[in-house]
Write a structure and sequence with these properties.
Layout lengths: L1 H20 L2 E6 L9 H8 L2 H4 L2 E6 L7 H6 L5 E4 L1 H9 L4 E5 L7 E6 L14 E4 L6 H10 L11 E4 L5 H4 L5 E5 L3 H7 L7 E5 L11 E5 H4 L2 H23 L1 H11 L7 H15 L8 H12 L18 H4 L2
Parallel strand pairs: 1-2, 1-3, 6-7
Antiparallel strand pairs: 3-10, 4-10, 5-8, 5-9
Helix pairs in contact: 2-10, 2-11, 10-11, 11-12
Amino acid sequence: MKKILSLTLGLAMSLTAGSALAKDDLTLQLKWVTQAQFAGYYVAKDKGFYDEEDLNVTIKPGGPDIAPAQVIAGGGADVIIDWMPSALASREKGVPLVNIAQPFKRSGMMLTCLKESGIKTPEDFRGRTLGVWFYGNEYPFLSWMSQLGIPTDGSENGVKVLKQGFNVDPLLQKQADCISTMTYNEYWQVIDAGIAPEELITFKYEDQGVATLEDGIYVTEASLDDPKMVDILQRFVKASMKGWKYAEEHPDEAAEIVLENDETGAQTEKHQKRMMGEINKLTAGSDGTLDPADYERTVKSLLSGGSDPVITKEPEGAWTHKITDGM
């Protein structure tokens, strides 16, 4: 009897080990640091949604010196999260990125200005100093200014662009009249610094008709040529969207999961729970499938840069429904 039990136990352990070995590895590179902006992926990992799809997913946080397109081009990740302007610009420069899913339906980007600056409309930007993020985040801003016919060369009739760090100091220290903020992050940092909402005026890219797609899921073309990788990606996107749906329905728990994964200890519960609420507004209604109309709007905006467009020609093969259709 003991021998049978021993054999049974050994077989069970062998099967368990075999099951663990059978999982497919996948590395995800985030666009920024660990925060609720990426809750869907952390939730999918924490709640076992990736395990259910036989995936072993490694999530790599981003940072100010990390360009996701460069990471995947160098083989440091299988999948990246990036904004479409950056991804399309990278594609035109030779990194064959393809959008395989789009969890974010709306843009959270905006310019936040001090009311005391006297700025009331975008035309009032002329002659002002505006804080802008770079590392690929400048493209939506440059496209917007081009459409307004406002030079970004610091001339009297144009704007002076302040290369903004990933903080709100230029506004607090009055080095800039307006700074780049996200509805879910930096805007609230300004508020937490003691500036009341009524002392601010915001210009959302969505409201200005110049919004471009953010936080899409991208891979290289080579991944889509590999049937096994296509299967892995379908399982990854399916589990990730399950994570996003769970985050939408359990925002406080999702924020807590993000905090548990923040190895820096820099994030606070108050900020992450507030961020989760704002992020849910951007992912609401998305099942991960890219809407071609949203893609076309983004491309049109990026091409309309006058003498300095973000991209110079209509992209080809820059997105696919191959993954979301196969889920």
